[in-house]
């Protein structure tokens, strides 16, 4: 495949960025999107140019670091995959692919496609934990958890904190991320003890960091690579009301 | 925001039922209903709640929208292509149009009752009929109710989600109700204005 890439290039947070167009001939459909960018960088380094900076780590859809906004979709046009698992076979010969960093006030661009997502960590630090030492795993029948609750808690816990929900939301809201974290604890007995303090602290931190508000458009749910559902946001709202 | 909105949603059918009395050739039932709404003590208390709900809904809506705009100072070059509820993207604008309509509506009726605008508050029937005879007023009226319908559809679904009610079985029922409500209520108001405009 012969592709045209329009990639956002920005030297650092304070610099003004711009799109730079690159021609990418002979892209194999078997490549992942990140491998295609690796090939581009190989070319750029070979010709003495600055390679495109993008974040990546596990390359197997677990770490959540490879977020980028591809042709109007966080993590690209394929549902329920991260950028690292996005295959080039989903694109066609002659396509122009526009690649941008996440755009949100709490996510300043560090360089090119890399944004500072530490705002997500700050929300987590504000209350996304159980503050007592839980010790070794207890005997399985000592605390009974309904199967439905354990499954829903696990579904919430698979959130990788990549920020696609913020990137997709027209309001740059982090509600889906926060609701996944809140749900993960709210559904299990160990998390109920500190439920009130947790939801108050995490929502306050989210607001303080400048994320937008949820207007229930559902873009976050549609773009989440881990398919975190809107029902979590309703649960977050319930937990929030209960906390006051 | 959601609670204030839901209260306003509940008020609309009451208003619609009273408006249907405008279709009678006798002005007395409508004027009596209007008088009852203006004088019955319990209704007066509800009126204060209603005005408060309107103000809370407007000011909080504007505040939330400003925060939301500030949250993305740099826009994407390629617009977000995610498939979402179409109407949800324009709530501030459909809401603003409904607000403009409310201002006109208040000038024509509510302010007259308060003595701020000249006219006979005892005979809202004639005031309404003379307004509906003006084509331009009808066009604005109908446009505002179409936009109100678009606003209502997302508003109802969104309000339930915001107050924490999202259920595997009941949320689809709420969505169906939102469709029906968003069509029936504006259509009811539109039928009244068109009937008076064209046939009376």
Brief digest:
Chain A is an alpha+beta fold and 244 residues long. In chain A, 36% of the residues lie in helices and 11% in strands. Chain B is 76% helix and 0% strand.
Structure description:
The complex is a heterodimer of chains A (244) and B (200). Chain A has 244 residues and is an alpha+beta fold. Chain A folds into 2 domains: 108 residues, Roll (Ubiquitin-like (UB roll)), CATH 3.10.20; 126 residues, Fumarate Reductase Iron-sulfur Protein, Chain B, domain 2, CATH 1.10.1060. In chain A, helix 3 packs antiparallel against helix 5, helix 5 runs antiparallel to helix 7 and helix 5 packs across helix 9. With 200 residues, chain B is mainly α. Chain B has one domain. Chain B has 7 helices and no strands. In chain B, helix 1 packs across helix 3. The longest helix of chain B is centred in the first third of the chain and has 30 residues. Chain B starts with a helix and ends with a helix. The mean pLDDT of chain B is 91. At the A-B interface, helix 8 and helix 9 of A face helix 3 and helix 6 of B.
